């Protein structure tokens, strides 16, 4: 206000003149000198006032910030009391300068108050008040604001509980005890506002120590019948608890409900003499301690243990035991029988089967009546590298009591002996096994390669735009007429595409092709081979390494290989799996699959017949793929020194379609990924479906048919070489019979420890079973969908095709191994068969052909057991491996089958059980 008055009284002559010129002078006189004194006086006063606010002649600064004047000082006190020191805040302007004379409003929460409710800032911009805390213990707040409340801060104080005002004993208002019972008492202390006071000293006292005693910790011991009181005090607060000690009465059970107990449910026991406090009463259900929910002198409520904790026993063998511990050496109990359905009752007719697909179902089974059963115990884990222990135990009934059952010694132990002796593999078998393992290892590396490198499509397009995609490098042209090149049967390319396509080679041309070493695990380096074109067909080009020992003498045989591929194999692959040339337009665009036969493979990979690699799907302009041939290419070994052409073709032909099936799957996966990460199939399933391609090829000369139940006649001729057919299905069944002999140790999912590569055959068997059972009327459509699936892989892919959960598929496929074509047995469920093959006849024929190489008429490893008590030795089950048992004999009581761990506890959660009655 002073500044404004000064402005009004200031003569105009004091106004500033633009440009810094001095104001015009007025005539001298009294009026002038009086007028000059007034502005001088007011100007001095105004100057003195405004200096406190930052100087100048303008209005006082506006508050911009408000905060604690004593930052870092913790605010704490007791509920309902003043803080020991006033609370202070400081108000400042935007430049951080103190603002004097502004009003601060104080707003407490939690029932507190501020005295005064408003206060003005001093010359330092500080305002203060006295804060009386509210009634709630914990954090409390006080808001300080100024102006229009837009400038605000909140202070926090910790309020501690006050002096003890009340005390109460937790639990019942009165206790009913019997002599010897010990009860732990506890008390809650609170202040006058009801806030709990922690750490307050508590004193306990018994009104009559002859009835009960109580120590400083609140531990009460009932001594003799009578009634008294327990007094608890804290400061001036006190409480009393009435205690009654009754004489010991007899304990009894009058009724148990429900009539049939439910594992995991609630059981109510009505009776008399129950001890309702402390640990004086225990409830045991069939020898397993239950969780007690509520106890009164006449009623107990408890939770029945879960099935996994209860002993395997018939439903009528349950019991409830109440155990009373009086703490004086007197321990008594009372027991009553109960119906407790732990065992799942099964009553099957011949041909009927059941799969226990939950842990509770599989754990305990009761078989009613006699008969002969085949039981499979299997591990549903979907990794061939994970193993679990299990044990199958047979009993004739459960014994229950007041304590957990001890492990009983069985009358007979069943060893995991196999039905037939397992001969050592021959040298040829060892080579085949080692070759399969090398091949599978490379296939797994291929999956990792595409996951790491991603799709090659974009890089191929860029390389083609630069003119860098050229396929194999031409080294020399053979003499030929200009029009002698074989045309590609693929769709005619556009003019621009044709200009960039690689010219199809002609007979006699020589090219440079990089051959990979399977063990090298790189796409950057290969072994360059000079190769001669020995066949140009409609769907294939065959190259021979000019360095082969028989180079130049095998042209007729190579023509046979190429022609059979063009006329027989390519249509099979295209119809059932996809287009083998799915990536051709991105690569050399010659419309053909290349095949190179080289001694490099003989020398570096003597156990391998042939292989393919995804390296050739990438442009060689990328350093990591510098050895790429930029074409669909199958590598195969050349005939060995002294090996006849017929023997070479006998092993090679089924390998050719097997490997080009991989090219088909790889190419389709890359082409359909649209630049994303190609969904390469799990290696075991990729190998299994490649074996299916061999099977489809074998049908062309064996007269086998889908779901035709082909027997030994469709296989045996391959072994006797009665005609020109190759080694194909005999290879499948040779490996499968080895898998059957060791079925409890092996998995179709392979695994790092499957050194014999039996999963090639067991995986094929699984896929064949799935196609037979769920292929509808179109086998080819099932296989195409399986191959071209864009997201799923492995067993999840098969489950998507069948519509059945994996555990159910394993149960059915496992039983089908035994049941299929078993003499005199027709399963009630068609899923327990493999309609395309008569496996028992084939295995019997192999045994007849050579009993040393193929021991056992039916070599499936089955452990025989008889009704009564038995216990298998430890089963070590891989993911998707199965152990078989055959139960027979004359039962004298209901037979129990229990799955458990070898230590007697619950079996691993992935172990299940299935069975079929066979007689």
TrEMBL record:
Residue ranges annotated as compositionally biased, kind Low complexity, are 483-493
Q: Where is the IPT/TIG domain?
A: 252-326
This protein's superkingdom? Bacteria
What ranges does the record give for the region Disordered, renumbered to this chain? Answer: 1-30, 471-493
Locate the BIG2 domain: which residues?
Answer: 190-237
Q: What is this protein called?
A: Attaching and effacing protein
What phylogenetic lineage does the species belong to? Bacteria, Pseudomonadati, Gemmatimonadota, Gemmatimonadia, Gemmatimonadales
């Amino acid at each position: 206000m002073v500044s404004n008055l000064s402005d009004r009284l200031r003569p105009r002559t004091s106004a500033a003149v633009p440009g810094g010129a001095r104001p015009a002078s007025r005539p001298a006189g009294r009026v002038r000198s009086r007028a000059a004194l007034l502005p001088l006086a007011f100007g001095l006063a105004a100057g003195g006032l405004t200096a406190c606010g930052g100087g100048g002649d303008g209005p006082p600064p506006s508050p911009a910030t408000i905060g604690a004047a004593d930052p870092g000082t913790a605010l704490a006190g007791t509920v309902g009391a003043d803080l020991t020191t006033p609370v202070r805040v400081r108000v400042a302007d935007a430049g951080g300068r103190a603002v004097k004379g502004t009003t601060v409003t104080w707003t407490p929460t939690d029932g507190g108050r501020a005295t005064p409710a408003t206060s003005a800032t001093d010359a330092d911009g500080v305002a203060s008040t006295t804060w009386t805390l509210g009634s709630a213990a914990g954090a409390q707040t006080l808001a300080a604001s100024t102006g229009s409340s837009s400038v605000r801060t909140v202070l926090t104080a910790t309020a501690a509980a006050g002096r003890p005002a009340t005390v109460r004993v937790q639990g019942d208002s009165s206790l009913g005890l019997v002599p010897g019972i010990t009860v732990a008492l506890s008390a809650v202390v609170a202040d006058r506002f009801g806030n709990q006071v922690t750490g307050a000293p508590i004193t306990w006292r018994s009104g009559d120590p002859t009835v009960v005693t109580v120590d400083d910790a609140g531990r009460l011991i009932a001594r003799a019948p009578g009634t008294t009181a327990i007094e608890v005090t804290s400061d001036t607060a006190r409480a009393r608890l009435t205690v009654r000690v009754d004489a010991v009465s007899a304990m009894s059970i009058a009724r148990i409900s429900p009539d049939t107990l439910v594992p995991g449910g609630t059981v109510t026991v009505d009776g008399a003499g129950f001890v309702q406090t402390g640990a004086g009463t225990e409830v045991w259900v069939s020898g397993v301690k239950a969780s007690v929910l509520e106890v009164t002198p006449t009623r107990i409520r408890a939770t029945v243990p879960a099935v996994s904790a209860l002993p395997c026993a018939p439903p009528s063998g349950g019991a409830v035991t109440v155990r009373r511990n009086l703490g004086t050496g007197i321990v008594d109990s009372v027991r009553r029988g109960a119906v407790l359905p732990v065992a799942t009752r099964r009553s099957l007719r011949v041909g009927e089967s059941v799969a226990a697909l939950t842990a509770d179902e599989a754990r305990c089974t009761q078989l009613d009546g006699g008969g002969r059963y085949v039981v499979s115990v299997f591990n549903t884990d979907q990794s061939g590298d994970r193993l679990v222990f299990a044990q199958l135990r047979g009993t004739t009934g459960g014994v229950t009591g007041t304590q957990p059952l001890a492990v009983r010694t069985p009358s007979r132990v069943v060893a995991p002996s196999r039905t037939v002796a397992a001969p050592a593999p021959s040298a040829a078998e060892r080579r085949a096994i080692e070759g399969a393992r090398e091949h599978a290892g490379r296939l797994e590396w291929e999956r990792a390669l595409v996951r790491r490198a991603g799709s090659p499509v974009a890089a191929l397009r860029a390389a083609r735009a630069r003119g860098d995609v050229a396929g194999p490098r031409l080294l020399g042209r053979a003499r030929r007429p200009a029009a002698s090149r074989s045309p590609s049967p693929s769709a005619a390319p556009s003019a621009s595409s044709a200009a960039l396509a690689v010219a199809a080679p002609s007979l006699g041309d020589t090219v440079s092709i990089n051959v990979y070493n399977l063990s090298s695990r790189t796409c950057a380096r290969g072994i360059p081979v000079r190769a001669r074109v020995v066949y140009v067909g409609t769907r294939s080009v065959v190259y021979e390494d000019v360095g082969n020992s028989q180079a130049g003498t095998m042209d007729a045989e190579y023509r046979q290989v190429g022609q059979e591929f063009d006329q027989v194999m390519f249509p099979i692959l295209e119809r059932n799996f996809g287009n083998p040339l799915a990536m051709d337009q991105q690569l050399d665009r010659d419309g053909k699959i290349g095949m190179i036969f080289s001694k490099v493979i003989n020398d570096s990979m003597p156990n391998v017949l042939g292989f393919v690699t995804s390296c050739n799907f990438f442009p060689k302009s990328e350093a990591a793929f510098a050895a790429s041939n930029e074409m669909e290419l199958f590598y195969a070994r050349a005939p060995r020194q002294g090996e006849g052409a017929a023997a070479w073709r006998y092993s090679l032909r089924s390998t050719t379609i097997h490997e080009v099936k991989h090219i088909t799957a790889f190419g389709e996966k890359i082409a359909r990924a649209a630049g994303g990460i190609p969904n390469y199939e799990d290696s075991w399933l990729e190998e299994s479906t490649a074996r299916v391609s061999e099977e489809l090829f074998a049908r062309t000369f064996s007269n086998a048919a889908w779901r035709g139940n082909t027997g030994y006649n469709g296989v045996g001729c391959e072994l006797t070489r009665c005609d020109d057919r190759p080694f194909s299905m005999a290879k499948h069944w040779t490996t499968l019979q080895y898998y059957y002999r060791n079925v409890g140790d092996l998995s179709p999912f392979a695994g790092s420890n499957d050194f014999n590569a039996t999963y090639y055959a067991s995986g094929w068997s699984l896929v064949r079973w799935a196609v037979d059972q769920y292929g509808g009327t179109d086998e080819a459509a099932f296989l195409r969908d399986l191959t071209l699936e864009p997201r799923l892989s492995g067993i999840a892919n098969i489950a998507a095709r069948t519509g059945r959960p994996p555990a159910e598929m394993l149960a059915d496929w496992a039983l089908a191994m035994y049941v299929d074509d078993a003499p005199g047995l027709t399963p009630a469920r068609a899923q327990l068969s493999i309609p395309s093959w008569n496996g028992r006849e084939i295995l019997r024929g192999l045994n007849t052909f050579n009993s040393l190489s193929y021991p056992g008429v039916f070599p499936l490893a089955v452990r025989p057991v008889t009704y009564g008590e038995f216990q298998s030795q430890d089963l070590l089950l891989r993911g998707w491996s199965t152990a078989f048992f055959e139960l027979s004999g004359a039962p004298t009581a209901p037979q129990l089958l229990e799955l458990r761990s070898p230590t007697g506890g619950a079996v691993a959660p992935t172990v299940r059980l299935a069975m079929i009655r066979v007689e």
